[in-house]
Amino acid sequence: MRTEVKETAAADKRVITKKPELLAPAGNLEKLKIAVHYGADAVFIGGRDFGLRSNADNFSIQEMEEAVEFADRYGAEIYVTTNIFAHNENMEGLDVYLREIEAAGVRGIIVADPMIIETCKRVAPTLEVHLSTQQSLSNWQAVQFWKDEGLDRVVLAREVGMNEMLEMKRNVDIEIETFIHGAMCISYSGRCTLSNHMTARDSNRGGCCQSCRWDYFLYEDREDANAESGNALFAEEDAPFAMSPKDLNLVQSIPKLVDAGIDSLKVEGRMKSIHYVATVVSVYRKVIDAYCADPDNFTIDPEWLKELEKCANRPTAPAFFENTPGYEEQMFRNHKQKTPFDFSGLVLDYDADTGMVTLQQRNHFRPGDTVEFFGPEIERFSMTVGTIWDDEGNEIDAARHPLQVVTFKTDQPVYVHNMMRKEL
Amino acid sequence: MIKPELLVTPTSVENVEEVIDAGADAVMIGEERYGLRLAGEFDRTAVHEAVKLAHERGVKVYVAMNALFHNDTLPELPDYLAFLDKIGADAVVFGDPAVLMNAKQYAPKVELHWNTETTATNWYTANYWGRKGSARAVLARELNMDSVIEIKENAEVAIEVQVHGMTCMFQSKRTLVGNYMEFQGKDLGVEGRSKDRTLVLHDPERDVKYPIWEDWNGTHIMSPKDMCIIDELDELIDAEIDSFKIDGVLKDGAYIRDMTGLYRQAIDQYAAKPEEYIEEKEAWRDRALALQPDNRELDTGFFFKETVY
Ligand code: SF4
Questions:
Q1: Which residues have a Cβ under 8 Å from the Cβ of A205 and sit 6 or more positions away?
Q2: Entry's SUPFAM superfamilies (chain B) (predicted)?
Q3: What order of strands is seen across the sheet that includes strand A217-220?
Q4: How many Å apart are CA A200 and CA A117, to the nearest integer?
Q5: Interface of A with B in 312-331 (CB under 8 A)
Q6: Which atom of ligand 1 approaches the CA of A183 most closely?
Q7: Measured between CB atoms, which of A202, A233, A326 is closest to B309?
Q8: 3 state DSSP class of A164
Q9: pLDDT in tens, A271-300
Q10: Residue nearest to atom 4 of ligand 1 (CA)
């Protein structure tokens, strides 16, 4: 895709008409629907086989059909990740599986292993084939190679920066997808077998147990000394050696990515909650739309940055976008950070006459709590919760039970699938 | 019986000579700028010398260009490949398709060996790269014996496996050792982060040490033990695996020379008198063990390991 700029003579204002695709993750149908509802143009999902993240909830073929049917109504696309590096024994059943995915109406698959690429072209030729980031695609000639191999799109290595992307776009006419938000490997993708060694789990077939995020101790090794004796390259008060990267966040760089004509902007996180997906997708939706509507007068609304922080479970950084990241983009000692907000409820219904919301509880809240509502139809607003009733009309002192259905009055109208969160 | 090629990664031109004396059939060398985790640094002059020396002795020279290349290095590839073609290097070891494309154009006489390290895991993909012009696939170290043999049975390209040495577990483009030192407020100019520093990460949970260093290609973390299957070569030889590699990374030249000699004898013994080799298996392991530095234990890598996912 090339960015198309329209000069509207009347308004004398530049408008970008060809927006990049906003691509969101979904671990199950509920998450998928939320992602689309909150503004994703496309969603990637995992199937039961041949994908990484073996422990993320994955879609059966029937669920894929449902997903496609739902997405079609909104003009959204579905891609299925089949990005393992297969071993001999994984080759069985692939033909049937790919044919089923094709028949389910999925747009394309995301693939790392040429075995799966070629099999797909043979047995399910109408599926688009996208090269997974697992191939760690880092230069434009390699991009050219995969284009010549007939791939429809490539997902770049996480190590590729903005200038490199521009060079790729200049040299090769192929769709480019890049990650804009979420957790990532600190290794080159596909080039880490820490988990294979440490826990006998194959990271390139979805078994990674994030061994890179554990603590280690750096020593200078000598034959005459063991690790405990005096060759430590840290003092007692120093944090241990760690390789935990901050999560990626390119919200500030969306204008550059749009201008570069990057075709698809991808959010990581099939295991993340609907609250996370909704928050991240809605912010990027706003940023992309605002920039494309009026690129010359665009500024980042600080509100967007604050929103993203509300669902972040780790600090974020731009990683390789401008430069090779330094220690500031890693985490030492504290690898985890608690999310500052709790997702406390999902709107099931709203009665405009009474101003009462019917809400499915997702986390504890009680009368007197300050909460905020957000969603694509409304401006975010805060309010104090008043009296809460359960689904039988009994007044309750708190919404305690997960998935419990409760009602109470909201200060402003809300819509189905809006979300309520509470500061911790 | 068809004997496999014994391939070694030496540390220097002198060491090339030593490992040839010790019985190597081929050596893999190269420079950090293009190749990953090499035992020694060979600039163009050294590569040229090694090729002359090896070819006089009927030994092959493979040059490592298996780095992950970014745009900025691409302009250097044609010249380097043309140089390798000119001096008669026997093969270029590649992982990145950019090298494959350039090699076809600038080094048409040089064979290609596909080596992406961790991702060469099935025979279909090995053959795929074969159709793209590769003569050989270097298998991932994370495969077990049965998978290796099944790949060989179905492969249309030569198959190389590592039989000895350290294996890589992790490569990052980030400067992780330097980052940690900088985080601690240390002066990076004074601190060394290269291979020479022999840095290790201690894993308190498993009580093992992983060698770690930084170079042009980023940060590398290696296996805590050296794999060694000098006592399990029979099945692989019977399966007609084409090449056995001894990886000399982070070892000195004498060790590499001696280990090469040991494998030479073991292979020759099995080829000549298989029963004797079978009987002597334990002795072969002991001989290898005797060469090990105290801080490096031996294991059998993933050859007999069950990996789940
Ligand atoms: S251990 Fe870390 S770097 Fe390695 S595959 Fe897992 S998440 Fe990625």
A1: A52, A54, A84, A85, A86, A87, A90, B309
A2: Phosphoenolpyruvate/pyruvate domain
A3: A217-220, B199-203, B208-215, B218-222, B168-172
A4: 27
A5: 320, 324-327, 330
A6: 7
A7: A202
A8: helix
A9: 899 999 999 999 999 999 999 999 999 999
A10: A192
pLDDT in tens, B266-297: 999 999 999 999 999 999 999 999 999 988 99
User: At a CB cut-off of 8 Å and minimum separation 6, what does B295 contact?
Assistant: A221, A222, A223, A226, B209
Structural domains of chain A in order of their starting residue, each with its CATH number: 6-188+245-331 (3.20.20.70), 341-423 (2.40.30.10)
State the DSSP code for A105. Answer: T
Instruction: Report chain B's C-alpha Rg in angstroms.
Output: 19
Name A386's Cβ contacts closer than 8 Å, sequence gap at least 6.
A367, A408, A409
Contact B166, B250 (CB under 8 A): yes
* Torsion sign (Cα): A197, A202, A206, A207: negative
Look at the block and give the residue holding tokens 């697992």. Answer: A134
Nearest CB to A200 within list B154, B295, B308:
B308
Give the residue on B whose Cα is nearest the Cα of A328.
B183
Q: Which domains does chain B possess?
A: 5-167+225-299 (3.20.20.70), 170-221 (no CATH)
Residue A37 to residues A34, A64, A71, A221, Cα–Cα distance (Å) = 5, 17, 10, 55
A5-56 tens-digit pLDDT: 665 545 578 899 889 999 999 999 999 999 999 999 999 999 887 777 655 5
On whether the CB atoms of residues A226 and A220 are closer than 8 A, the answer is no
Contact A44, A26 (CB under 8 A): yes
Q: Are A288 and A16 in contact (CB under 8 A)?
A: no
- Whether B211 sits inside 8 A of A221 (CB atoms) is yes
- Token pair, residue B2, equals 């068809």
